[in-house]
Amino acid sequence: MKKLLKGFVLSLTALAVGYIAISLPFSLFSTLSDRMMEIIFMAEIVIYLITGAIFLIASEKKKEERIKSEARHSARREKIARVQRDWYDLAA
Question: Regarding predicted confidence, which is higher, 32 or 47?
Answer without folding.
Answer: 47
